[in-house]
Automatic annotation (TrEMBL):
Gene3D superfamilies: BolA-like
Protein name: Acid stress-induced BolA-like protein IbaG/YrbA, predicted regulator of iron metabolism
UniProt xrefs under PANTHER family: BOLA TRANSCRIPTION REGULATOR, BOLA-LIKE PROTEIN 1
Organism annotation: Acidovorax soli
Alphabetical list of Pfam families matching this protein: BolA
Family under the similarity heading: Belongs to the BolA/IbaG family.
């Protein structure tokens, strides 16, 4: 799987303002900004992203996804 493919899958299931992905095809690191993260704790945000991947995780197409998740306001406060 490519970074663009993974980005498309996440963006199709989650309204994202920003997504960056780095990885080797199975192990990924993501930064994701979404208004849908408002009022959610980190674990709830991660579960929301994992839900977009569904079978890709179950079939090991995506072996590992490490992520930082931000609301648009949190992202702006980071200077982005």
């Amino acid at each position: 799987m490519t970074a663009d493919q993974l980005k498309d899958i996440i963006a199709a299931g989650l309204a994202c303002d920003h997504i960056t992905l780095e990885g080797d095809g199975r192990h990924w690191y993501a930064t994701i900004v979404s208004v849908e993260f408002e009022g959610k704790r980190a674990i709830q945000r991660h579960q929301r992203v994992y839900a977009t991947l569904g079978a890709k995780l179950a079939t090991d197409e995506v072996h590992a996804l490490s992520m930082k998740t931000f609301t648009p306001a949190e992202w702006a406060a980071q200077g982005q």
